[in-house]
């Protein structure tokens, strides 16, 4: 009874925070969250894991339970997993949906989850071929959004790679480190028995499925596909010290996939504009909205540093006011952002010399 009383007292606070979390989110995010909540009650049915979850032995021939890759992601076995799923889906709506649009978020959700289902099933089929243990095919039930949650970390790494998350004794964790950190945490939780063996498999499959889709296949509004940025390579997920050998291995695999026709060869082109305004470098796969977000963050950081340096600089004569009002045009990619920059140091050095 004491627990119920605490819940009743905190119910208005919980309701208020939930409304704040889902404010300005699209219909897709709300439908996914509601479906997760409703399907949790169906998970108490003893056969729900078999009927709605991905069972490797039933997904492929001769059974062909082809609906399970579309339903497994909505069924969780614990309430805390449902709450975590809903929270991450809502955060995804806050961070990613304004940049991608509601349709792209839905496509990302579907592709990552289907990729997780197929990758996990193939993994357990491979284990079965080495062990001949039928329990790997018929006793393993894959369900939940663990793979999609790991895929979201890859999308956040793509959009805001250098944003800090939290500090640890070993150093600061940025968004670029979160996917590998998520894999590491899932393995630790599996080793201590907190989660079953399907969760690390789903997390690894989610990271790989998300990266492959965002790297090579995501369609952008400017007609390009993927994101071939240097800070979004497969080796960038790992610490700097091990990136060179991983780059060699990943590039070799990529070359094999290109020859097999699975991936397209990366083509980088440079277009020199006919007007004398400058040079436009066009890199296919980098979406303008995502790049604009990075540009605005960089310009904001630059302006704040210049303002700080201007406050610390000594007072200059009034005759230099006109020179201080000079502006610098910062051109990044296909769009230009102009920032009014106070050139204190340059003006002082030119006068003093």
Automatic annotation (TrEMBL):
SUPFAM superfamilies: Rhomboid-like. It is found in: Membrane. The chain crosses the membrane at residues 21-44, 64-93, 105-130, 136-156, 177-195. One of its GO terms (cellular component) is membrane. Keywords: Membrane, Transmembrane, Transmembrane helix. Pfam families: DUF1751 (PF08551). Residues 334-353 are annotated as: Disordered. GO terms for biological process: retrograde vesicle-mediated transport, Golgi to endoplasmic reticulum. The keyword Aminoacyl-tRNA synthetase does not apply. It is a multi-pass membrane protein. It comes from the Eukaryota. PANTHER family: PLACENTAL PROTEIN 6, TRANSMEMBRANE PROTEIN 115. This is Transmembrane protein DUF1751, eukaryotic,Peptidase S54, rhomboid domain.
């Amino acid at each position: 009874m004491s627990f119920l009383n605490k819940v009743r007292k905190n119910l208005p606070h919980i309701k208020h925070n939930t409304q704040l979390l889902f404010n300005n989110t699209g219909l897709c995010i709300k439908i996914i969250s509601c479906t997760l909540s409703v399907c949790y009650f169906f998970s108490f049915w003893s056969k729900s894991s078999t009927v709605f979850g991905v069972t490797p032995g039933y997904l492929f021939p001769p059974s062909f339970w082809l609906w399970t890759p579309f339903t497994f992601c909505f069924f969780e076995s614990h309430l805390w997993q449902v709450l975590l799923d809903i929270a991450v889906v809502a955060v995804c709506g806050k961070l990613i949906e304004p940049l991608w649009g509601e349709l792209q978020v839905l496509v990302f959700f579907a592709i990552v989850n289907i990729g997780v289902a197929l990758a996990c099933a193939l993994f357990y089929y491979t284990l079965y071929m080495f062990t001949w243990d039928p329990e790997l095919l018929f006793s393993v039930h894959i369900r939940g959004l663990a793979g999609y949650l790991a895929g979201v970390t890859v999308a956040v790494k793509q959009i805001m790679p250098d944003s800090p998350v939290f500090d640890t004794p070993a150093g600061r964790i940025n968004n670029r480190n979160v996917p590998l950190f998520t894999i590491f945490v899932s393995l630790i939780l599996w080793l201590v028995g907190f989660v079953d063996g399907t969760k690390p498999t789903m997390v690894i499959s989610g990271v790989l499925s998300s990266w492959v889709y965002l790297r090579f296949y995501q369609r952008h509004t400017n007609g390009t596909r993927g994101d071939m940025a240097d800070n979004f390579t497969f080796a960038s997920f790992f610490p700097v010290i091990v990136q060179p050998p991983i780059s060699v291995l990943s590039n070799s695999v990529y070359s094999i996939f290109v020859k097999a026709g699975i991936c397209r060869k990366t083509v980088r082109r440079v277009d020199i504009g006919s007007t004398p305004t400058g040079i436009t470098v066009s890199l296919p796969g980098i979406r303008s909205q995502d790049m604009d977000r990075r540009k605005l963050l960089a310009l904001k950081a630059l302006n704040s540093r210049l303002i700080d340096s201007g406050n610390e600089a000594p007072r200059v004569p009034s005759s230099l006011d006109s020179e201080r009002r000079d502006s610098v045009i910062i051109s990044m990619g296909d769009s230009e952002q102009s920032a009014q920059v106070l050139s204190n140091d340059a003006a002082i050095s030119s006068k003093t010399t």
